[in-house]
Design brief:
alpha+beta, Rossmann fold, 2 domains, 4-stranded antiparallel beta sheet
Length: 368
């Protein structure tokens, strides 16, 4: 593994996404694909059966760009393994990729979510042709290829991309920023209690939520089984664990320290710069008390396990204040950090957190 990660022969397995390196974790299919760029002569053809993570995984970004920018892609035919390879899970998705090594791909000939290999005998009639600029707009950071299965889906994506993305900040309007994992069901298990009488607030899992509801008023939902204790016992508190994760985060959407550092053109050590700035403004150094938890406001949670074959491809609901979540749910952050000079003297610095949604906007987004 050291040969692949530290040597000079494999340079496409740790791309930069949103300013951070994303490791490909020594995926063998990625290693073989990168090797083909060297083995195939200029103008030579390559055909490989590849797992779909090559085309929609963030860690495979540089491999995709290499194939498209320095190759002429002839076809990408994606399959769901329904009766194709008997020894492989029928949910597994893979793609038959054919490209000419060298050149440039202006339009990407592709179709995904197929089940019958007979399509390979007459693919030209079924292929969609995805414009290059659509790829850039669809996934600017990761360059993920949308796994479309028809011209209708391609037309829908083109129409959607005529408008700002839901995560873009446009003027003073609302936007959706996902918090992917507040608590982990396994690694944070020391912060959960299972006795309702011992807990002070609920900890939501995916099984506790369905579309527009977060309690057991409908039969398919499980009752809350995890609870947390208040922060007056920080060594056992789930909320305190979330607070410390946010305090130590390097993500400027979550990290108050980094937001201050960037807003005031910091240099050198983040901690040193921020604490010196706060001292100049007559207050103590930055602490966990300055963090305003998302759970102090109503917010939207979405179940992480959902796909196009389910009753709903997105399952979401507004969850109550004072509740935290585990990794089977993502939440849409109710606050954004917008630090001004006036905030620097406040303790705790909760004034730096601005509401993203009005109650009406939150309601409309949950319904959409």
């Amino acid at each position: 593994m050291r040969y692949f990660t530290d040597g000079s022969h494999y340079e496409l397995l740790s791309p930069e996404v949103k300013g951070k390196q994303v490791a490909a974790e020594n995926n063998l299919s990625a290693i073989f694909l990168e090797r083909t760029f060297t083995l195939a002569k200029d103008g030579g053809y390559v055909a490989q059966v590849l797992p779909n993570v090559i085309f929609n995984g963030s860690s495979m970004k540089d491999l995709r760009l290499k194939m498209i920018n320095e190759g002429d892609v002839k076809s990408l035919i994606g399959f769901e393994n329904k009766g194709i390879f008997e020894a492989i899970d029928d949910r597994f998705r893979f793609t038959v990729a054919v490209f000419c090594n060298g050149g440039y791909t202006e339009k990407l000939p592709c179709i995904f979510e197929q089940h019958d290999p007979k399509i390979l005998r007459n693919i030209d009639e079924r292929l969609t042709h995805m414009p290059r600029d659509l790829l850039i707009k669809y996934s600017h950071e990761s360059q993920i290829i949308p796994l479309i299965s028809s011209e209708q889906q391609l037309a829908a994506i083109k129409k959607i991309l005529q408008h700002p993305r839901i995560g873009d900040e446009v003027d003073d309007s609302w936007f959706a920023s996902l918090y992917m994992k507040e608590l982990d069901r396994s690694t944070d298990s020391d912060r959960f209690v299972e006795d309702r009488e011992e807990g002070d607030y609920p900890i939501y899992e995916g099984k506790n939520m369905h579309q527009f509801t977060h309690n057991n008023l409908i039969d398919i939902l499980s009752p809350i089984s995890l609870w947390g204790v208040d922060e007056d016992d920080p060594e056992k508190s789930a909320k305190h664990r979330v607070r410390m994760k946010n305090f130590r985060s390097h993500n400027p959407e979550i990290s108050l320290k980094k937001a201050i550092y960037e807003e005031f053109d910091g240099s050198g050590s983040q901690k040193g710069f921020v604490n010196s700035l706060l001292e100049e403004n007559g207050r103590q150094e930055l602490s966990e008390e300055d963090i305003l938890l998302d759970c102090t406001e109503y917010r939207i949670a979405t179940r992480r396990i959902a796909n196009a074959t389910n009753e709903r491809s997105i399952i979401a609901s507004v969850i109550p204040k004072d509740a935290v979540t585990v990794n089977s749910l993502c939440t849409i952050r109710p606050y954004k950090i917008d630090v001004s000079k006036d905030d620097l003297c406040n303790y705790p610095m909760h004034s730096a957190y601005e509401r993203v949604f009005t109650a009406k906007e939150l309601f409309v987004l949950s319904l959409s």
